[in-house]
Design brief:
The chain has 15 helices and 13 strands. It is α/β, with parallel strands linked by helices.
Length: about 375
């Protein structure tokens, strides 16, 4: 087979960037001589993260349209035209065999131009409620890889393939025992709750833990509390005297493999990537979706799990009493929730998506 060439776009957030890189890695493992070119929005995080992963990226002048009145919306049509023209030039120069999109506004112009030129195209949708870019592209592309059932609400049924979301190799290859992980973290052997809020932190999750920490510790559990860097200083100043074998407070967790291994239950946001990891490792989870995301997709992700008895849900507007009741339920229903979420695991998603990409190459 001649040297293959793939163009990939997806960005704006880590939720789009990581799957794009994971798909590239899976294709490169099969075809080490393949060439890759990423396309991203000029001022977004993909321009830094993609080169760090070892891939070339070109930036285009594009951004999402604001839902509120904004001067930036006046330039939106110019950005679209500029991006379409640049993507057309990049495709003409690079000559891709397949073009892949993982969502985010940067992928729209590239996939649109590629489909118009009859180049095989594939999109990957991470969430249970499809993003606007992927919904607009659905009728144009050849294949749509999804992570949830019932996505025919958004896409042509005949194009959909259920693959799941790519997850980090370190998560899939978890070889650390719970006992080793707890010892390394300086924790007791008690059941352990992991609290996650993302790298910056989640204000409401931190508030709930802060206001209920004493009651949570009275349950006889350990707590690993990842606060995010925005909240760490104020939280550690308040609770430093309580840290020890039962409580660890961290701004950011570098070794998620170790943290997951030490953990019996998780409190987390409901981003698609996180939920795929929790399914792969089979952790009982209480999900607190962020209400401040497009289309409220985190709540829809969480409901897709709770409907199958694979997780519990707590909404940000709930009271402390309701929160503590849900945590108690999380502890009591640990085994049932683990069984439920394991049934949803699709740990080989990147390889499955690579299969679909290579099918398009053969059909070309």
């Amino acid at each position: 087979m001649p040297e293959l060439r793939f163009m990939i776009s997806g960005g704006g957030t880590g939720g789009h960037i990581f799957p794009a890189i994971a798909i590239a890695d899976a294709l490169k493992a099969r075809h080490p001589q393949a060439q890759f070119l990423f396309v991203g929005a000029k001022d977004r995080m993909e321009m830094e993260r993609v080169p760090q992963a070892g891939y070339e990226i070109e930036g285009i002048w594009i951004s999402g349209i604001q839902r509120r009145l904004s001067l930036s919306n006046l330039t939106f049509s110019f950005k679209i035209m500029s991006s379409l023209l640049k993507c057309s030039r990049l495709i003409r120069r690079f000559k891709p065999d397949v073009v892949i999109g993982t969502g985010g506004f940067a992928s729209g112009p590239l996939l649109y131009v590629a489909a118009s030129k009859k180049i095989p195209t594939l999109i990957q949708e991470q969430n249970s409620y499809a993003g606007i870019t992927n919904k607009l592209l659905g009728s144009r592309v050849n294949t749509i890889c999804v992570a949830y059932e019932k996505m025919e609400r958004f896409f042509p049924r005949e194009k959909i393939v259920l693959t799941g979301n790519p997850i980090r190799d370190t998560i899939r290859q978890n070889i650390v025992s719970p006992k080793q992980a707890k010892a390394s973290l300086g924790l007791s052997n008690s059941p352990t709750l992991l609290v996650l809020g993302g790298s910056l932190g989640a204000r409401r999750i931190n508030q709930l833990i802060d206001e209920n920490l004493n009651q949570l510790l009275e349950e006889g559990i350990n707590i690993i509390w990842q606060t995010g860097k925005l909240y760490y200083n104020s939280i550690i100043e308040k609770w430093n005297d309580r840290t020890g074998a039962r409580l660890k407070i961290m701004a950011f967790i570098k070794d998620m493999n170790q943290a997951y291994a030490a953990t019996d239950f998780v409190i987390s946001r409901a981003g698609a990537g996180t939920l795929s990891e929790l399914a792969a490792i089979g952790k009982a989870s209480l999900l607190i979706p962020s209400p401040n995301v497009a289309e409220d997709h985190q709540t829809k992700n969480a409901l897709a799990l709770t409907d199958k008895k694979a997780a519990l849900l707590f909404r940000e507007s709930g009271s402390n009493q309701e929160f503590l009741a849900q945590v108690k339920k999380l502890i009591d229903q640990k085994n049932e929730l683990e069984i439920g979420i394991k049934k949803l695991a699709l740990p080989n998603a990147a390889e499955h998506i690579a299969d679909e990409v290579l099918k398009l190459v053969k059909e070309k």
